[in-house]
Design brief:
The complex is a heterodimer of chains A (about 110) and B (about 110). Chain A contains no helices and 11 strands. Chain A has about 110 residues and is an all-beta fold. Chain B has about 110 residues and is an all-beta fold. Chain B has no helices and 11 strands. In chain B, strands 2, 4, 5, 6, 9, 10 and 11 form a 7-stranded mixed beta sheet that branches. A 4-stranded antiparallel beta sheet of chain B has the order 1-3-8-7, with no helix packed on it. Chain B is globular and about 35 Å long. Chain B starts with a strand and ends with a strand. The mean pLDDT of chain B is about 95. At the A-B interface, strand 5 and strand 10 of A face strand 5 and strand 10 of B.
Chain lengths: ~110, ~110
């Protein structure tokens, strides 16, 4: 069974702190990976794609570890507005997207 | 902006009723996806269209679920003889190219079956 596993959290983090979470995927042949952000009762929105070399966008850094089959998301200098659920997504060899259940992040003032 | 729109936003149905959920993708987007999202879960894939062709319907949970996109733009997800377990948010997403491209989501239709 295809699975993307994430720690559901919640991660309670003080404002300004750095937080990181991982997700593991099952298909070693998967080609593409994404992090989506979903606010409560809203639709998912793409946060960033995850490339083999890793990528950074402002305070957000995503890494891919093919050997251990996990991807990670690091958020530096966290803001109250970063509170959301972060969904890890794997695009398999048939380009079907497999979604994790999400990690809930709560940033506290 | 002209994002993905879905209607209705909320639907309450009595068990056994048929429902139809509509999705208007972003203009020019070739690919369209339907997902089902239960509370506290990630989206579960239902079906995928490339233009008007339904290329993958492996995620449809039963033959009560039917989707169409006859002209390659608007899509309708129909659920016949609704059951309580069908209660969920139904999300539609579109993308410019294939499945590996960024998907843009509509706001979803929250279906409650009583």
């Amino acid at each position: 069974r295809k699975e993307v596993e994430q720690d559901p959290g919640p991660f309670n983090v003080p404002e300004g702190a750095t937080v990181a979470f991982n997700c593991t995927y099952s298909n070693s042949a998967s080609q593409s990976f994404f992090w989506y952000r979903q606010d409560c009762r809203k639709e998912p929105k793409l946060l960033m794609s995850v490339y083999s070399s890793g990528n950074e966008d402002g305070r957000f850094t995503a890494q891919l570890n093919r050997a251990s089959q996990y991807i990670s998301l690091l958020i530096r200098d966290s803001k109250l507005s970063d509170s959301a659920t972060y969904l890890c997504v794997e695009g398999d060899s048939n380009y079907q997207l497999i979604w994790g259940a999400g990690t809930k992040l709560i940033i506290k003032p | 902006g002209a994002g993905v729109s879905q209607s209705p936003r909320y639907k309450v149905a009595k068990r056994g009723q048929d429902v139809a959920l509509r999705c208007d993708p972003i203009s020019g987007h070739v690919s369209l996806f339907w997902y089902q999202q239960a509370l506290g879960q990630g989206p579960e894939f239902l079906t995928y269209f490339q233009n008007e062709a339904q290329l993958d319907k492996s995620g449809l949970p039963s033959d009560r679920f039917f989707a169409e996109r006859p002209e390659g733009s608007v899509s309708t997800l129909k659920i016949q003889r609704t059951q309580q377990e069908d209660s969920a948010v139904y999300l539609c997403a579109s993308s410019l190219g294939g499945r590996g491209n960024e998907q843009f989501f509509g706001p979803g239709t929250r279906l409650t079956v009583l």
